[in-house]
Design a protein that fits this description.
Order of helices and strands: EEEEEEEEEEEEEEE
Oligomer: single chain
Strand content: over 45%
Number of helices: 0
CATH architecture of the domain at 113-223: Sandwich
Helix content: under 10%
Number of strands: 15
Distance between the termini: 79 Å
Radius of gyration: 29 Å
CATH topology of the domain at 113-223: Immunoglobulin-like
Length: 224
């Protein structure tokens, strides 16, 4: 075996496998530790951490670093029982029993669905948010299929200017009606001018007429 000489600042190409301290079994095989002052990139990582298999105690995901591609919306990440994980759809009537000790923070929308024992939906809690402009605004809420009535607590806010009210809604698939009550203002001039209910092709919508630009936060409970 001959010697290969390299030169600082120059590119060196090694054809074939390379072994450091051991005969190579891969393109690069090292007997001993690998030290790097920069980042190491790879398509996948297999092995152990401090002598034990990699698990979530050693893998830390910060902020939104965990991303997926070509994955349908509404799936959950679930252990497959064979040492791996997979995305699955939550079936009606199924349950995910999770205990959270401490603070649970959710960045984004969250839906809470109550099922009967046979898998039918009893109720659904959802939060809808939308920026409104002065005048009439349509805020889409629940899908109208199957659900019969809904109750909403709506908060309109712009800085320290805030208006809150409740509205009870019923529909028959083509027409809808609602009763508004409990209108409360934190200032003299209300942000709410009028509120009505409409039926679109797929959703029940709140038509909110405002006296100024504001943000609407709609906490709704649909009953099926």
């Amino acid at each position: 075996m001959g010697l290969i000489r390299t030169f600082q600042g120059k590119e060196s190409v090694f054809l074939g496998n390379l072994g450091l301290g051991v005969a190579p079994s891969e393109r690069l095989t090292i007997s001993g530790n690998l030290s790097s002052t920069g980042d190491i990139y790879a398509n996948s990582f297999l092995g152990t951490w401090n002598g034990i298999p990699l698990n979530t105690n050693q893998v830390v995901v910060e902020s939104i670093d965990l991303k997926t591609t070509n994955i349908s919306e509404g799936l959950v990440l679930k252990a497959d029982g064979n040492g791996g994980v997979k995305f699955e759809e939550v079936q009606s009537g199924s349950s995910l029993a999770t205990t959270v000790e401490g603070t649970l923070t959710v960045n984004g929308d969250i839906d809470i669905v109550e099922f009967t024992n046979d898998g039918s939906v009893l109720s659904k809690n959802s939060v809808f948010t939308q920026s409104l402009t002065t005048g009439s605004n349509s805020v889409a809420t629940f899908l109208k299929a199957d659900f019969k009535t809904a109750k909403y607590i709506v908060t309109l806010s712009q800085g320290t200017t805030r208006t809150a009210f409740e509205i009870l809604v019923v529909h028959n698939g083509s027409d809808a009606d609602g009763t508004t009550y409990g209108i409360v203002d934190a200032q003299v001039t209300s942000l709410l001018s009028e509120v009505n209910v409409s039926v679109s092709s797929t959703t029940i919508d709140l038509v909110i007429t405002t006296t100024g630009n504001c943000t609407a936060i709609v906490n709704g409970v649909a009953h099926y």
